Amino acid sequence: MRIRVGDDGSAGENGSGDGVAELTGRFADWLARDRSVGRHVTMTRERSATADGGMSGDLLEWIGLSLSTGFSAASLIYSHLNFRASLPPRQRPGARMVVEHNGVRLVIEEGSAEDAARLVRLLGTTTATPGGGATGRAGSTDGENTGEGAGGDS
């Protein structure tokens, strides 16, 4: 599973990469200190490559999480809500959590019970096959943001 904090990935060329990278990095630090989440995941920081000698390389694009027994989707959402509440008011609206799992992307904005249920469905219904492809898609009763593929599912 991969997560980041900021835009949903559609704003990639409007110069917001630095802000997304900063929020994602701060959230990674937050998760590492959060005992209810940090002890149940192995975290990697996925950085962008420097493009054509540009100075925007090494931006933190995603936090990779490998889940272990005892992981709670609700704890992850609660941790994100606490992180978001710690931000200055002007940064809070842009601090959405974007979760990607097996090519399916989910945007968590408010951290509601429905958001938690959607995350549980995403993690529980998309399973990897031995060949690495997804065997299912997370469903949403309202069709919101769960079916957006991020890769080349064919």
What does this structure look like?
The chain is of the alpha+beta class. It has one domain. It contains four helices and six strands; from the N terminus they run βααββαββαβ. Strands 2-3-1-4-5-6 form a six-stranded antiparallel sheet. The radius of gyration is 15 Å and the shape is globular. The two termini are 20 Å apart. The C terminus is likely disordered.
Shape label: globular
* Poorly predicted tracts of residues: 10-15, 126-154
Counting helices, strands and paired strands, the structural category is: alpha+beta
Strand neighbour order, sheet with most strands: 2-3-1-4-5-6
Number-wise, the strands total 6
User: Roughly how many Å is the radius of gyration?
Assistant: 15 Å
> What is the element string, with H for helices and E for strands?
EHHEEHEEHE
Number of domains: 1
**Alpha plus pi helix count:** 4
Mean pLDDT: 74
| Range of helix content | 25-40%
Distance between the termini: 20 Å
Strand content: 15-25%
How would a crystallographer describe the biggest sheet?
6 strands, antiparallel
Features:
alpha+beta, six-stranded antiparallel beta sheet, 6 strands, 20% strand, globular
Per-chain topology:
Blueprint: E1 2-5, H1 17-33, H2 35-38, E2 41-47, E3 60-67, H3 73-86, E4 97-101, E5 104-108, H4 113-125, E6 148-149
Antiparallel strand pairs: 1-3, 1-4, 2-3, 4-5, 5-6
Give a quick summary of the entry.
With 154 residues, this protein is α+β, with helices and mostly antiparallel strands.
